[in-house]
Amino acid sequence: MSAYYDLFESPDVQNTGKPQPLYARFIPKGTMGQEEFIDRVHRFTGISHSLLQGAMQAFTDELRDALANGWTVEFGDLGYFTPSLSSRRVMDKKEIRSASVSLRGLNFRLSKQFFRELNEKITFERRPAQEASSDVSGTLSKEECLNLLQEYLQKYPCINRTQYSQLTGRSRKRAIVELNAFIQEGVLAKHGMGKAVVYIIG
Length: 202
Fold this sequence. Notes:
Shape: globular
CATH class of the domain at 138-201: Mainly Alpha
Oligomer: single chain
CATH superfamily of the domain at 138-201: Winged helix-like DNA-binding domain superfamily/Winged helix DNA-binding domain
Largest sheet: 3 strands, mixed
Radius of gyration: 20 Å
Mean pLDDT: 86
CATH architecture of the domain at 138-201: Orthogonal Bundle
């Protein structure tokens, strides 16, 4: 078994109208739910489903409480979780108070060991044409779209609605709804008007 990738054209940031270089992007085969994940661990280890479910819930609860109390949490050999914050931009520290600072999400830093082991195990193949034509990206969850968006904005300064639709497989209407939701959540900020609107990291 292998993981899928496909090639996508880089955005024409300078609006040159010329063909842009292609880059590889991971294409998920779907989302593995918690029950299926626990079932796989059960089959591999023999640990009961109820015990695994209880342990997962306990890990999740303790992770949330530790993060809420200001800790960076090392999650086994997987990596480190740290809260990500959102606030308005100011020039002077006195212009903002703690009540104006809110949680934006979580930053995750993969451990070197897990990366090395994953890198040794994973292999890639081009997404089959029949699956590409069915547009599996249209089935992505909002969280998966957000991950793709954040990955994209680490490489490029901004994104527009059309590029977001191409990135996630969303329709025009749904793309606008999700982009506006990300703005409300502090993930994105919007610049420009009309057809010139672009979105940047909030």
